[in-house]
Amino acid sequence: MIRFENVSVTYDGAAEPTVRGVDFEVPEGELVLLAGPSGVGKSTVLGAVSGLVPHFTGGTLAGRVTVAGRDTRTHKPRELADVVGTVGQDPLSHFVTDTVEDELAYGMESLGLPPEVMRRRVEETLDLLGLAGLRDRPLATLSGGQQQRVAIGSVLTPHPRVLVLDEPTSALDPAAAEEVLAVVQRLVHDLGTTVLMAEHRLERVVQYADRVALLPAPGAPLVLGTPAEMMAVSPVYPPVVGLGRLAGWSPLPLTVRDARRRAGALRERLAERQDPGPSADPAAAPVRLPTPTSPPPSVRRARRLLGRPRLTAPDPASSPVAEVRGLAVRRGRVRALRRVDLALAPGETVALMGRNGAGKSTLLGSLVGLVQPASGVVRVGGAEPYRTPPRELVRRVGLVPQEPRDLLYADTVAAECAAADRDAEAAPGTCRALVAELLPGVADGTHPRDLSEGQRLALALAVVLTARPPLVLLDEPTRGLDYAAKARLITHLRGLARDGHTIVLATHDVELAAELADRVVLLAEGEVIADGPTADVVVSSPSYAPQVTKILAPQRWLTVAQVREALR
Amino acid sequence: MRDAGVHPGAWWLWALGLGTAATRTTNPLLLALLLAVSAYVVTTCRPDTPWSRSYGAFLKLGLAVLLVRLLFAVVLGSPIPGTHVLVTLPEVPLPHWAQGIRLGGRVTAEGLLFAAYDALRLATLLVCVGAANALASPTRLLKTLPGALYETGVAVVVALTFAPNLVADVQRLRAARRLRGRPDRGVRGLLQVGLPVLEGALERSVALAAAMDSRGYGRTADVPASVRRTTAALTLGGLLGVCAGTYGLLTAAGGGYGLPVLLAGLAAALAGLRLGGRRTPRTRYRPDRWTVRACLVAGSGAAVAALLTLAASADPAALHPGVVPLTAPALPLWPAAAVLLGLLPAFAAPAGRAEPTAASRSAEPAVRSEAADHAEPRRSPRSAGRAESAAPAAARARPAARIQAAVGAEPAESPDPRESSKSSKSYKSSPSEEPPS
After folding, report:
1. Which of A226, A497, B87, B355 is deepest in the core (most CB within 10 A)?
2. Which residues of B are less than 8 Å from A123 in CB distance?
3. Beta strands A397-400; A223-225: pairing state
4. Which residues of B touch A158 (CB under 8 A)?
5. Can you tell me the distance from the alpha carbon of B204 to that of B210, in angstroms, rounded to the nearest whole number?
6. How far, in Å, CA of B145 to CA of B168, rounded?
């Protein structure tokens, strides 16, 4: 269905080809996962399927790409529109119209399908994707998961034989991601659609793939094989594979279910080391609770009222860095937050979790004074953020927004650092030193736009840290990061926590929360529904439990690193 | 629901009719009546979309126009001779070359009243445009463009959705300034985010262009060269004809040939557009149809405009109450009755505000059968909600049964035989299309 014949792509002005010698074939009705670290050219390969590379992006494509027998050299993207459906990372930039129903019909209108066919397919697609209740809604009012489903639906209505998805779940909470992936799987199974998908969060997708196309390093040739084979050699792999590699299982299990069947022996070995004690890395907080059951609701409620975790608060006597009491926030008619209580102790790492639109970003926003509280009290270092002038506030709290680029204005890294020093009234060179530490080997003259996602995040973090705020907030820090960039981020953040910074992360990434957080606060519909030590909260929740926890339940391990430590 | 909607063109005609009527009179009572009529129709007929809230914004705009006009009348004085002096402002002496302009001086009740009448007329016109906006968004109107102009229409729709995105970008970046410890309010803050906002907008438009390209925007069908040439000739010739005809109408000499040439040019241009539509193989999803209701809506607007124009020539005194001497305006009876005709849409086409029922809101995908979808438009909008809640039950039947039910139900549900034959035809063509599940 899709055939790449010795394809190399060189963009204009680039010395080296972005991808070289790509040669593979995807047969009809298969779901192929394109995996690899950032910057190896996954998006280029995907773009070549829909013809956007090179017709839209420019550059030179050597070799031949054919889709359903059509050569992309002679067919422009619009002439492939009836066989290839493409959904990019950001569904909002994909939408042409303004309501769900019109968006679903747009592609068919362009292809000139008869009105009766259009009408029927829109209804079918609404049902297939579970969007029937949203048919008249303006697109801007939908949640992230709903938008992603509409974007997929909008390319499905012309019945393409090939679907190309670029990171379909990276912006979604675990439940919404499963929703989207279930739809993709249904398309493959029921309609025989061929799917080529790139995704960083392999733990979500690898079990659905028929085969994996791996781009192991920039310029390296693409290898295609079964998921188990590829995961054994891949530089990027989900925790389930990490655990499998650690335990030496072969073939590698890819699903939690397979891994659980194999894990009997491992569980026994780990059971002997009942109490791993504090691990070598104190910030990793591998707290193993004495009882495997989660505390009764009354205890949890009491703890929430106290606003302080039972086990991990470093020093109950120390005054909190930030305190939120009875906070309510309104956005128009929507009550974004209601009666939120939260206290943050020095040196603590807290993960805010919850589905898209639960109020995580709003809570972070009210901690940095971007959001005006409707009622309740927010205090950060004794000041009320909303009423504090920004110049003073940066010394108490810093936020790295969801899009780190928003924080960067200058043309070069050096200029950015100089501006950050001025803004924070820090000694010249403070920010540059931080950048050198977080982001070694970045030249002064680099434009922030040319950095990779992970590098940009590190630069934004350095800018925020220049004012040395005791409280650092990060909104969705791992969006678009590969495992290596994520591991570097985790190391940085652990270092910060060791230095006494309090860190709050709003994240959908359960693996990140498991690695990093001492405490997890779950939000739903603007209310705190659970607040406690990470192990405690995530173990009791099926959608927020990390893979290792699921595999080794009822024991309460969170990460591969903990298990490795225990087995040593 | 969109099915209950009247053709957007009808709403625009209705609103423009009311606006035209407003330009024919300065009687504040008639103008107030026009405002009340538009407000009543908007509140009863507007659909539940973000666009429909624009009426309030236009009301505020109208109020602003009124206030600005009054302010000018106070400061700059008014040419209306008046005897009732309300207040005398200190007059600023102006040099002789600014003769005829007065700053300050006497403010008379007559002058103010004249300005108020005048401004109210303009405000009413604006509010009527706002009503059209609220009742049928310009986006919907653009969708009714002929095929040859389709791509232009899409471009305008995209541009319209772009503005809200730009505003959101500015807000986000100003918030980000605060995070850097810079003041986020004030003009300087706004100026400094300008470049990043433009950069973001540019990137978004490139991404959107890529998405549109890969979804088939700009596909063209193969058209024989002869047709292409005819299209070009017709369109160009038609436009030239329109120009020449207009020139003829406007000059004194060419009174004889003006109108026929204009009409011929118009016809040629329209034919060209129609032929040009063949090059774009596009179809329209659920096009708005011009129904009896649309005729009623458009007709009521046109009637109001026509009757008030008539009244303005028949009884100018009643429609333009004098301000010198000061008199209380009287409500002329039959023009007022004519304005009330504009209320017709409120009864002919009330908004089918069928809230999504519990069934369609539930997590389980609520399947709406074709039968329900075809039947709905012809039911009264109030029963549409009931039709929806009944739909899932019908839809759980097997597809074949669904089709039978749809075809069987159609004649019973719709009194219009043309409609039912059309929908059953669509089922006959269906075997070529595989249903996905």
Report:
1. A497
2. 368, 370, 373
3. unpaired
4. 216
5. 10
6. 30
- Whole-angstrom distance, CA of residue B102 vs CA of residue A456: 61
Eight-state DSSP code of residue A138: B
Helices (H) and strands (E) counted in chain A, each on its own, are 22, 19
Separation between Cα atoms, residue B225 and residue B223, nearest integer Å: 6
Contact B178 A390 (CB under 8 A): yes
Tell me the C-alpha distance between B60 and B82, whole Å: 30
Question: Of all helices (H) and strands (E), which one includes residue A196?
Answer: strand A194-198
Residue with tokens 């024989």: B224
Supply the pTM of this predicted model: 0.73
pLDDT band at residue B194, thresholds of 50, 70 and 90?
confident
Q: What pLDDT does residue B160 have?
A: 73
* Residue range A338-364, pLDDT digits in tens: 999 999 999 999 999 988 888 898 999
Helix axes B28-45, B333-340, angle to 10 degrees: 20
- Nearest by CB to residue B179, choosing from A99, A128, A399, is A399
pLDDT digits (tens, 9 = 90+) for A50-98: 999 889 888 899 999 999 999 999 999 999 999 999 998 788 888 888 8
Sign of CA dihedral A377, A380, A383, A386: negative
Q: What is the C-alpha separation between B78 and B324, in angstroms, rounded?
A: 13
User: In this complex, is the C-beta atom of B139 within 8 Å of any C-beta atom belonging to chain A?
Assistant: yes
A177: three-class secondary structure by DSSP: helix
DSSP string, B133-156: HHHS-HHHHHTTS-GGGHHHHHHH
Per-residue pLDDT at B283: 82
All residues of chain B having their beta carbon less than 8 Å from the beta carbon of residue A51 are 214
Q: Where are the alpha helices (DSSP H) in B46-96?
A: 54-76
| Confidence check: pLDDT of B334 > 80 | yes
The two three-digit tokens of residue A434, written as one number: 């931080």
Q: Which helix (H) or strand (E) holds A213?
A: strand A211-214
Between vectors from CA B329 to CA B325 and to CA B335, what angle results, nearest 5°?
Answer: 135
Pairing state between β A375-380 and A349-353: unpaired
CA angle A492, A493, A497 (to 5 degrees): 120
Q: Is B178 on the interface with A (CB under 8 A)?
A: yes
Alpha-carbon span B405 to B397, nearest angstrom: 9
Task: Please list the residues that pair with A329 across neighbouring strands.
Answer: A337
Asked if residue A90 lies in contact with residue B209, where contact means CB atoms within 8 angstroms, the answer is no
Rounded to an integer, what distance in angstroms lies between the CA atom of residue A346 and that of residue B243?
77
Signed CA dihedral, A140, A144, A149, A155: sign only:
positive
Least confident of A243-257, A542-556, B165-179, B180-194: B180-194
ipTM (interface pTM): 0.80
**Strand partners of residue A504:** A350, A473
Could you give the CA distance from residue A11 to residue A17 in angstroms, rounded to a whole number? 7
User: Which residues on adjacent β-strands are paired with residue A7?
Assistant: A22
Q: What is d(CA A83, CA A163) in angstroms, rounded to the nearest whole number?
A: 8
State the amino acid at position A422 in one-letter form.
R
Determine contact: A118 vs chain B, CB below 8 A. yes
Task: Tell me which amino acid residue B406 is.
Answer: A
Q: Taking residues A267-281, what's their average pLDDT? A: 63
**Which residues fall within 8 angstroms of residue A517, CB to CB, at 6 or more apart?**
A285, A349, A350, A351, A505, A534
Whether A516 and A493 have beta carbons less than 8 Å apart is answered as yes
Task: Check B183 against A154: CB less than 8 A apart.
Answer: no
